[in-house]
Amino acid sequence: MITRALLPHFKKNKNGSIIYIGSESALKAKKYGSLYSACKFGLRGFSKSIRDECSNNNIKVTIINPGMVKTSFFQNQEFSHGDKVGEFIETYDIGKIVLDILNQRQGLVIDEINLSPLKKVIKFRKKK
Questions:
Q1: Domain housing 59
Q2: How far apart are CA 3 and CA 12, in angstroms?
Q3: Are strands 59-66 and 16-21 parallel, antiparallel or unpaired?
Q4: pTM of full prediction above 0.85
Q5: Rounded to an integer, what distance in angstroms lies between the CA atom of residue 68 and that of residue 115?
Q6: CATH of residue 117
Q7: What SS3 state is found at 123?
Q8: Of 20, 32, 36, 92, which one is the catalytic site residue?
Q9: What 3-state DSSP class applies to 73?
Q10: 36 is catalytic
Q11: What is the C-alpha separation between 101 and 61, in angstroms, rounded?
Q12: Cys staple from 118: which of 16, 19, 86, 106, with CB 3.0 to 4.6 Å?
């Protein structure tokens, strides 16, 4: 809905940037994540399609696919990222990349960025 609202304005101005936040689940599906992965695969396909449709209007479209980000998302999950540095992504990391994308020179677009913590650690909680 946000894309639908923004595109006419961007097309009129022949300029704009759209950045979607996807997930590494859009790259590789995992067990117990079918609905989440399906949504993120869909967002990734949508992003690529919108990018093709809008490039002639100087509208840049990028999708960022982060791995496990240290947020409250995991509070109600049965799993989470590791606790040590290098076992999760900080929200700051994503914010910095968003700024980098927005500061690219005219005529250059970053289609997709995949972010991962250095170490892929998944902690599972005991079921209550």
A1: 2-124
A2: 14
A3: parallel
A4: yes
A5: 9
A6: 3.40.50.720
A7: strand
A8: 36
A9: helix
A10: yes
A11: 10
A12: 86
